Amino acid sequence: MKKRILSLILALSMVLSVLPLGAFAAGSTQDLVIGSDGYPTASNGNGWSYDSSTEKLTLRSGTYDFSSTAPVQCAIHLSGATAKITGGTFAGSVTNGGTISGGTFRETCYVTNEFIGTISGGTFAGSVENRGTVTGGVFKRNATLTDETGLHSITWDAASSKANIVAVNDVAANWAPYAYKGTTVTITASTEIYSLNGELLTTNDRVNGDKKTVKFTMPDKDVVLSTGELVMKDGLPDTTGMTPQWERYIGHNWGYDSSTKTLTLLSGTFDFSSTHPQTPNATGARPVPAVKCAIESYATTTITGGTFTGGSDGKVTNYGTISGGNFKNTCSVTNGGTIKDNGTFNGTVTNNFLGTISDGTFTGTVENSGTISGGTFQDGCSVTNKGTIKDNGTFEGTVTNSGTIENGTFAYKVENNGSGAIFGGTFKGTVTNNAKIYGGVFNGKTGLDGVTGLHSIAVASGAKIEKVNDVSVGASENWDPYVVVTASTKDQEVTITANTEIYSLNGRVLSTNDRVNGDKTTVKFTMPDEDVVLGTGELVMKDGWPEASKNGQISCSGTDWSYDHNTGTLTLTSGEYDFSSTEPVQCAIKSSATITGGIFDGIVTNNAGGTISDGTFYGTVTNNAGTVTNNAGGEISGGTFKETVINSDGTISGGTFAGSVTNKGTVTGGVFNLNAKPTVTTGGHNITVASGAKITEVNDVSANWAPYAYAGTIVTITADTEIFSLNGRLLGEGDHVNGNKNTVKFTMPNENVVLNGAITCTDLVMEKGRPKASKEGQISCSGTGWSYDHSTDTLTLTSNSGTYDFSLANPQDTTKTTSADSAVACAIVIESGAEITGGTFNGKVTNNAGGTISGGTFQETCSVTNNGTIKNGTFKDVCSVTNEGANATIENGTFKNMCRVINNSTIKNGTFKNKCSVENNNTIENGTFAGSVTNSGTVTGGVFNGNATLINVTGGHNITWDAASSKAKIEKVNGVSADWAPYVVTSNATTKEVTITADTEIFSLNGQPIDESNYPNKNDKTTVTFTMPDDKDVVLNKAITSTDLVMENGWPKDSNGGKNPCKGDGWEYIKNEPTNGDMLLLTDGLFDFSTIGDGSAVECKVFVGKPTAITGGEFNGKVINNSGILGGTFHGEVDNMGPGRIENGTFKNSVENNGMIENGTFEGTVENNTNGTISGGTFAGSVSNNGGTVNGGIFNGNTGLDEVTGLHSITWDAASSNAKIEKVNGVSADWKPYVVTSNATTKEVTITADTEIFSLNGQPIAESSYGVDKKTVTFTMPDDDVVLNGELITKPEPEPEPKPEPKPEPTPEPEPTPEPKPEPQPEPEPEPTTYTVTVIGGTIDGKTSVSAKENETLTVVLDQNDIPDGMTFDLWSISSDKLSGDINVDYRAEAMTFQMPAEDVTIRAQYRSAEIIEDAAPSPLATAATIAVGGAAAGIVVWQGVSLGVDLYLANALPQGVPVPTDRRALALLLWETAGKPEVALPTLYGDIPAEEIELQKATRWAVQNGLMDAADKKDASFFDPDHYVTKMDVFGAWLRLKKLLGTT
Length: 1545
Fold this sequence. Notes:
7 helices; 171 strands; 18-stranded mixed beta sheet; 5% helix; 20-stranded mixed beta sheet
């Protein structure tokens, strides 16, 4: 053993001697060495082992300090309770079953603290899963340490939300540190750390003076760090988490006094448009409301933005810089620093002697004691200057100056007072000077009295100064610059912009250096100590001389001109010159330019390149005869020349030459005066006037004229007489000048011109009612297709000359649209092939054979003789028309009142208005004749106003009104107004179509409705067009006869919304019936108004006559029933007359009963009069019995039912006194039911309450009597009051009768006989249950109600006295499903025998009309047999609306075990479920069905969409009324519709 120990020691010594250089773990584990790669260098040692395959180091015992080693990379497991780590850096996972008291655990290090493990220190950047004990350390987050106490967070305050902790205890990570009390923590942040838990940090708190790193001992609470950044909230500094010092909060470069609400900015830049003014672009910053506190800004502070109200003091004090922001009108600013760059100041700004304003926008008041060197001071901003305004600045409001103004732009008013001095600036507005002005540019000199050195700046006339020093004036304003120049002037430089080029300054031609950016309209110069005149270079004349020459005294020049005062000559070198706007030119002119106008008194020399295109050239009074010399290369193209012209090798191409012309050059145009003996005598043509007239002016030049002109020259000639023709051409308005017919303007043709020669025309031109060429009818003239004879004043349109529209000035040329100036005044003859299409005619018109009149208006003074064709036209009052000749025809036209027509030929059509008389001596084929017609010829067609004068005319028929419309009036026939009694001849008419217009709507022709296509205007029913029948008169508005009644929008369709009477089989609609007004009378048949037509509610009154019945529909008007009402909903009043019967229906309004009410629902007042009988029905409203009979029915209270027998109440038991009956027979009301049972048609009652009903008169309720729930119960009313929910009455069990003891047999003594044991008593048998049979229309054993046991045989016998008049017994209906399907019962026998089922039964006699043959209906046995095998609905017959066999059918047709639905809810669900619950869209939900009852919503929507049921109200489809009761007939109808829908009928 000792040898082994020695060997082990020796081996250990050898290992240690060869170990690599490394760090050793402390304590007893001297043999654990971590290499430079972070892994153990050996596999095991004392208290530890290392598995290189899993890279896992296991520490079983001992204390380990890895601080001196490389960071450990492998996983570590402290598996022993005595194993402990005190230091080191770890990158791999650590599982602790021992103790960790120190060390740095990187983000990659996952630490698991096992149940027996303890962590008392260390820095953990990675995840820690704790199952053991933790008492110390710093952790990245506390997600797995929530059960530990003493663990506190280290976070930032809200103001520092963008700051980050980048290292804890020198360990970098994305930190959210949690530390234990007493732990020493070093925090390094991404920004300066300003405070800890509200306490300012000192130098001692920082590490090596680094403001981003702080070292502290963790307190027993959370630690909140702060960067001290200013954060705004609701307009004030956010001081959450900060510790005040004497109500002052100190932040980084800022402080806030909460008592005065003053924010002090010490240093740095602040943008208050963000929640973080010091870092406005940081993440999380956002726009904020206006700053609501006062602000004091120190010298090294800059405010760049934000909105400021000034706080309660309304004040911002700035000793730093403001370069932006919006300062509201409530915020006054005191500036002792700088305002620059930007910013809007709406309140008062005080710029003290230290302050400078270099930019910004100001709208309030500014008081300046410092310096203003820029900014915009807007209109309304008043500035008081006691300091200095210099360099720049725009002042749009009033400036009051008692300081110094050196520069700036002043747009409005300046008051210079006291010690004020102006040394410069541009003043566009007014200036009031009460002090000193040493310089500046002013607009005008008003207010500058006494100012020395004041000089004007002017531009040449016609030009305008638009800007001075870039300051513009408005379009209606002018700059009138005045500049003050003194030795003290700060700036004498002026910039002028004109609306034209500026050529010179005080006579000096400007150079490029004088202009601004090459702009010739803008010049910049230093203002001299004298006035300045800016020249534009343009030639300006004054008093006949160049303006700059001072009346010819000095030489001057400009753009393309110069003047030599020595020779008095103006030389024009190029360009165009129009001297017409100046005085006559006095100087001589030498021109190589173009002269376009003017008056010239001196010598004019037109040199090469020169052109004279206009002007007037005179001699002078001083006998310096004006001479125009046109030299070689010169051209005269226009002008007026009154004296000599010498054309020396020049060219004359135009002009007017009244004087002599000496030509040595070329002449190609112009007008010359032959009387002046010019040398120009070839190439031109003479102009003369016929008839000895004289030409007085040529081209407005007066002279003794003999004009000679060249072709192409425009010539204006004025004569001493009217000029009406030129070379035979008639002159028009366009030829004369300004309407002066003595003056004519034309272009000279290449021939001589003769004015006022003979006229030759082509097209016809009318003027003043006659051909223009006729000179108002004075001379005869002619043209193509026409001629005019002035002797007869007749215009003849010659053969085949075409069409003439005399509504135009050029009747033959419709492309010329000038209208004629007046009606045709002369007579007209139309030859064959000529046609008049329009115009107005006052004279006689003769239309010869082959001629045509197709338009025009022929006035009262006009007479027309027609031998041709009149196709159209208007022939006015008193105009006479004679239709002559064998082929004369009137095809159309309008012949107005008092027009007289004599027809000796044929009238084929036309409109002959009222009082137009027609004398027919030949043939009338058609037309509309409102006036009188005297007939001596033949009439084969036409519409005439009466037939009194139509002798021997056949085939005519009248158009009249129906007697009911006797007051109606026909106002127009075929558009012709008259007092009409139309008579239409159709025997051989070319057309039979007639259009009638009346003073009322026309709805029928001969009793037939009018088709929409017959109304020309669909919106106007007073006018109708139709074809006149050949064989009969036409009666308008006769009552329309139809067959079936069809309703539309509540009225019979044929009545047009109730406007027209109509009738059909079994019905008639009467308009204005004397007693009832508009009324629908029903005379025969059954009428279900829900199915005839569109099903809408009936709006008119309805009278139900015998033998008729209403079976369904809605009625808004009054209904008078003299026969039967079997169903329907009645919103209006109902008058049930003596023979009338009401067997069903819902009555919303009042009912007056003089007949019989057997059933129905009555929600309004019912008056039951002496002859009235009520034997059934549900009456929710009041009933007044006025001597009538009431032997059945359910009533709401007993008021008004005095002396009614058999009246029984339905009430609650005292224990249920708070219960409420909500519905009776499905009718909602505030119910107090009373039931009359004495001779009721039915005693069945359905009660719905607000609570469950469990007993009737102390008897439990059978399950079969309940509806959908136990709040609804149906029962037969006994002849007694009914108490609901009374205490159940228990029948005592009968005690069995004891049997007598048997007498003992005598036995011989002495043997005693034992007493016999008593026999066991038998249990008494229970009394059999009895059920009630109620009979309506019959009796059982003479009673209408009997009780019977199950299977007991009973016989019901018909009561013959109950059979209604006109009816006969048909069969018995039975309420019991168990009995109604029994084929052994003869339901049609008047004495029916049956076996009593185990339930109450109601049996009712059913009747049919006596007129119906009994064999027409199936036998009840056949019906029952058919139904029993699933038969068809054909087995059910309805007579007079009474259901026959419905009970039988429903009992066998509905699914087995399903009760017949009694309300709309159950019926809808039954239909939907039977169809397989098909899916259905729910665009909306019914408002009276809870949204959560989705199946009921689907069932009801599906039933309505498929036409199986209707919505509760057709006018409001949003409600279904699920609790409303339904009859078995309702169920029967819905079931048949379902079968048809499913294809199983």
